[in-house]
Design brief:
The structure is a single chain. The longest helix has 24 residues. This protein is mainly beta. The strands form 5 sheets. It has a 6-stranded antiparallel sheet, with no helix packed on it. It has a 5-stranded mixed sheet with strand order 2-8-7-4-5, with no helix packed on it.
Length: about 325
Amino acid sequence: MSHSLKLIARSVLFILLAWHAAKTAGQTTMPADLGLSSQAPARIVQGANIPVYGYIYNEAPTGSDDLNYSIYYELPGGGTSTAAMGTKSADGGATFDTYRYDFDSSLAQFGDNVFTIHAAGQQGTLHSPQTQQVTVEVVNHVVPAMWIQGVEVHISEAHPAAQEPDVDPLAFGATGGGESFAAGCPHIIGDPTVPTAALDLDSISSEGDAQITTDLAPVSNVAANDDPSSGIAWHVFVDGSTLGQFSKIFTVRFSDEDIPGASPTGSVVAYLEILANVDGNGVTGSIEIVPEPFVAAAILPVILIASRQLRLRSRAGRS
């Protein structure tokens, strides 16, 4: 190549490099892209302390602008949390920064508690600002009860406020069948109407005469409902082939459904005593409910017409 051609080639290369440098100097990176998600338990028992999480992403491609963001929570009872700030590098949303608000539900209202999470990036950030709502339902502990001929009776010692001294035992004294076990009703005598945890019936044990049996069995997640037909149906059986007087005490243990703040498995206890008399005229009997610690037991007479076997058909309501 001649000397003049080399000079021309070098000049062209210099011009191209200068053009590329000028073009590059005028370019900017892609803007940050805000992403927001959240997480919290859907249901908790009042008194539980849970985290409500917010997650910040920079969904812009790697090499884009950093995301300089702020985040805060609008709280169910009014007011806001302290705003937090941070910086998230761009990675296409592959990772996130975590923020949490610790929710102490001891004084929270029953029902839905709504958190609104607010997040924003610097000026020019894509998809900014953003808000998300997180709903946590706060429920009461189960209040076990027993439907007896259309009357709902609390049966456990776990909720002494429900065992009110002015409850008239005669209200439970009608004759005939229809006795039943029930889970927690949201509007039992003396209780406010509130959302209530579902019932876990954890175990049933018994002590007494073999002539008395039951088909009551463990079951989980019986939703709180005042309708007896939506509860646990169960039956008592008495063998009428042997004359005599018989009795058996059933110990029924249960707890809240498995959600944050739930009572421990088997921690709520009810005692039911079945009394039966078998003679030449057939089978008669009663149910004795023993709600501890201080309410007197109510004797519930039952007319049993079967001479060989007693079957108390029950329909459980929930408490």
